[in-house]
Amino acid sequence: MARAAKASDGTQGSNSTPSVNRNTSKDDLLKYYREMLLIRRFEERAGQLYGMGLIGGFCHLYIGQEAVAVGMESASIDGDQVITGYRDHGHMLAAGMDPKEVMAELTGRIGGSSKGKGGSMHMFDIETGFFGGHGIVGAQVSLGTGLAFADFYKQNGNVSYTYFGDGAANQGQVYESFNMAKLWKLPVVYVIENNEYAMGTSLARASATTELYMRGASFGIPGEQVDGMDVFAVYEAGLRASEHARSGNGPYILEMKTYRYRGHSMSDPAKYRTKEEVDDVKKNRDPIDHIKTMIEQAGVTEDELKVIDNEIKAIVLEAVEFAQTSPEPDPSELYTDVYLEA
Amino acid sequence: MTDILMPALSPTMEEGTLSKWLVKAGDTVSAGDVIAEIETDKATMEVEAVDEGVIEAILIDAGTEGVKVNTPIARLAGGESASPAPAKSEAPTVQAVTEDKPAEAAAPAKPELRDPEFPEGTPMVKITVRDALRDAMAEEMRRDEKVFLMGEEVAQYQGAYKVSRGLLEEFGDRRVIDTPITEMGFAGVGAGAAMAGLKPIIEFMTFNFAMQAIDHILNSSAKTLYMSGGQIKSSIVYRGPNGAAARVGAQHSQDYSAWYANIPGLKVVAPYDAADAKGLLKAAIRDPNPVVFLEHEMMYGLEFEIPAVEDFVLPIGKAKIQREGKDVTIVAHSRMVGFALKAAEQLAAEGIEAEVVNLRTLRPLDTDTVIASVKKTNRLVTVEEGWGPCGVGAEIAARVTADAFDDLDAPPARVHQEDVPMPYAANLEALTVPSVEKIIAAVKQVSYK
């Protein structure tokens, strides 16, 4: 499947990068399949629980974008950090957080990763290096730059993966962060998940320029446009970007061309795009179908895939069960975690 | 013949050091020639000749400290110009070598009560608020490698108000970091670095500019511990001058005390004197929570005594009885404590003994100390630089009326900025801000006198 890639070295206009040979083992294929399927099935259940009134407030599903979080995660090493906006469930699962804790946070239970006090948009996990889960569009870009500042300060060889959407790409602090990151050569990979719509506003209606990978050009930050529906393309670009940032060259921008299948949030009927447009992506660009085809070509049988499907289903059902049986936080939790003892 | 006078480098400067003469007696100078350099505690300024002529005499030697504004420093014999130099004294024009901001020099006269934490007889040293803040940062940076200072002009420029003077030289550019003018960006970088376990001190040139960054202070720092179920701590200090300086107009003269004090998850500290500044800033840097540290530009240059002890740390959340009295309680914070002390002095001459409570911390608010004082005096006046509605005084009045209603002999009175943006005109500005006179009037109001 040939897909066009574009790149900017940060000092001149776009050019194409040569496609990379893919020598991928069956194990790698199955790992990607498993991780992407977990996100898809998890999110479908989350949507269902929302419909049942078990999840409240805002709930932004990651369905369609799975290849971005999974591919990038594979390019990271221990100690690296991930930070993103409010569409965060996929990133948490890819980072290795326990699906039970994520789902229980969605239902606002004590077993949730934030004891039920954060909710869909505000989850964190120090152990896996997941720093949220931020509800203010664009704020995570400065914060992720700060995580990279800490890596730089500690000289620990780690990288901050800072995700934001095409909508956040128009926030001022993104460019304040680009400037400082390049000025101080901070180890940060900015991953722009361009799913074409900022809530109901298409990229073309909101952005004077739609080539988001070029947004670092005036700071001299190299950028690449990547097929975000192809987990291998994501992984390979992720490796290039990580290597660049990790070896002291400063920030790198990856624009992931992706698509969300569901509305912006559960309450969005997504009338701003046609059913045909969505169906076309589902039919022709679906990231899970894509890898499934490769897996079949690698000689994996339908039965082998079925085993994985069942495993994932069981994990998700267990998470759903936990998220409903874990109790609500005790009222005494109301006043905990406001301050730490000095 | 014209006397060249020691120039005022800001509307409130009272003295400076004549650091260098660039001319000597007998030299001919033209208008605009640089003749001397004068150093204040914040900046070195070049002094230019206003008239042409011959320097007849240097009256103040180079290196002289504490030269009062308007002291003759040299004498200029009239040149050969058609119009002889006027016989009156005139100050030369000055041009900033480094940018400067006004500072206040009027120190309060009264010695204060010792902190209860330090026994009677503790040796004291004199230090400016500015240097107390600097020393606090330096001591904590020596103590903890994770502490760093970031902000505009904090490193090479030595601080826009010279608060970070010398820190770059001691700690290097890894830990004393000049940022671009990018408040939202560097506040976010600081907040993110704190999440990753560092202990940033984020300096805002003034808190007026922090409005561009307030999202990170609230949403990224104050709320994260809670939203993460206790996982992500944010040990970070956001500091800088807050409140009205002098004659800088509406956008540069706002007191944000009530804004930040409204937010759970933040600690908010507002020091008055050098001891507060040093002891509380050290505590703020050590604190595992985000702390908003509201300094005052007009206090930076003032000298106070502080205990000469090795590691001077004050508790956050404890108010201080700055002056004891039995007739009325005046609650104030930051610069207004000095105003309250002055008012108390004048009131004492009229037989009213005011107790002055220096809040020191606005969140958590030390309501116990305030209420204990009101139970003794039965009268309450609050003083703040900010606007009245929903202000610090409103909060204190609400708590006192709720918890000590029966102890009050009069409704509480509030002194605060008039309910208008800060005007520039000197007379209007003076009408707008709280004053000693307004405090005295409020005390008399609650005392029915």
Based on the model shown, name its key terms.
heterodimer, A: 8-stranded mixed β-sheet, 11 helices, 10 strands, B: 449 residues, alpha/beta, OB fold (Dihydrolipoamide Acetyltransferase, E2P), Rossmann fold, 5-stranded antiparallel β-sheet, globular
Summarize the SSE layout with pairings.
The complex is a heterodimer of chains A (342) and B (449).
Chain A: E1 6-8, E2 14-15, H1 26-51, H2 66-74, E3 81-84, H3 89-95, H4 99-106, E4 130-133, H5 139-154, E5 160-165, H6 172-183, E6 188-194, E7 197-198, E8 201-202, H7 203-206, E9 223-227, H8 231-249, E10 252-257, H9 275-284, H10 287-297, H11 302-325
Parallel strand pairs in A: 3-4, 3-5, 5-6, 6-10, 9-10
Antiparallel strand pairs in A: 1-2, 1-9, 7-8
Helix pairs in contact in A: 1-2, 1-3, 1-10, 1-11, 2-3, 2-8, 4-11, 5-6
Chain B: E1 2-5, E2 15-21, E3 28-29, E4 34-39, E5 44-48, E6 53-58, E7 64-68, E8 72-78, E9 94-96, E10 124-128, H1 129-143, E11 147-151, H2 167-171, E12 176-178, H3 183-195, E13 199-203, H4 214-222, H5 224-227, E14 237-241, H6 257-261, E15 267-269, H7 274-286, E16 291-295, E17 303-307, E18 320-323, E19 328-332, H8 336-349, E20 354-358, E21 361-363, H9 367-377, E22 380-387, H10 392-403, E23 413-417, H11 426-432, H12 436-446
Parallel strand pairs in B: 11-12, 11-13, 13-14, 14-16, 15-16, 19-20, 19-22, 22-23
Antiparallel strand pairs in B: 1-8, 2-4, 2-7, 3-6, 4-5, 5-9, 6-8, 10-17, 15-21, 18-20
